[in-house]
Amino acid sequence: MVLGLAEAGAHLIIVHRGSTDPSEAVEKLQALGAQVGTVVAELSSNEEFDTILPQALKISPTGSVDVLVNNAGMSYYRKGAEDTEDIAWDTVLQVNITSVFRLSRAFGKYWISEGKKGKIINTASLYSFIGGQNVIPYTASKGALHSLTQGLSNEWSKRGINVNSIVPGYIITDMTSDLVKDKEKYADLLKRIPAGRWGNPADFKGPIVFLASAASDYVTGDSIFVDGGFIAN
In its keyword annotation, does this UniProt entry include Lyase (predicted)? Predict the structure, then answer.
């Protein structure tokens, strides 16, 4: 997603955990001509949310922020509901839905108070629409995210704030590495994808640029599926 935005000419501010090093990603984005800033914050910590927007505004080359992309996410795999620990539930919902609400609230309040338009793009999931097995915290968080996207859109679209989501299908990433390594499961899922392949991160470039740009000014409360036709099958 971030590469697509950089290629389209956006200036970027990346929020990352202190335990991660974004320097390689920053260099790639700068090579595309983007101005890139970084903010360190732990989305599983309630104490750090209030610092993100002020830091972003401080380092923004334009002094403003026009688009919020809520792309952080996590899950715990392969445990039934009866064996799911409280810490798994609490942590997944904190990162996947509470952080989205708190960041959206901060940015929405900023745009409204400044009389500015803005765009919020959330990363949803197929499990926002179908019940996932052995990933109950993740499924619950992504179902809530779909409702949050529509609810915020209903409240804020008249204020010039568009709220939409991108719905990834089965994409080859670090988060799906266990599924990819399971050859039987990988092949079974592949049979259910009409496009005949798993997706890759580059498939999100078009949708993210569309939702971040003026081309989507009349699109709000919607979900764009990037799933090779999986949900329709």
Answer: no
Domain contains 46? yes
CATH code (residue 64): 3.40.50.720
Number of domains in the chain: 1
Containing domain of residue 66, as a range? 1-226
User: Tokens 């496009």 map to which residue?
Assistant: 195
In sequence order, the 6+-apart residues with CB closer than 8 A to the CB of 129 are 146, 167, 231
Compute how many other C-beta atoms are within 10 angstroms of the C-beta atom of residue 184.
Answer: 7
Domain contains 233: no
* CA-to-CA dists, residue 161 to 22, 155, 206, 209, angstroms: 29, 9, 20, 16
Q: Which residues are known catalytic residues?
A: 138
Task: Tell me if 81 is assigned to some domain.
Answer: yes
Give the pLDDT confidence of 27-68 residue by residue, as tens digits: 999 999 999 999 999 887 777 888 999 999 999 999 999 999
Q: Please list the helix, strand and coil fractions of the chain in percent, rounded to the nearest 5, in that order.
A: 50, 15, 35
Question: What does the angle CA 203 – CA 206 – CA 212 come to, to the nearest 5 degrees?
Answer: 130
pTM of the full predicted structure? 0.94
Q: Which residues of 20-36 are buried (b: 16+ CB within 10 A; e: fewer)?
A: eeeeebbeebeebebeb
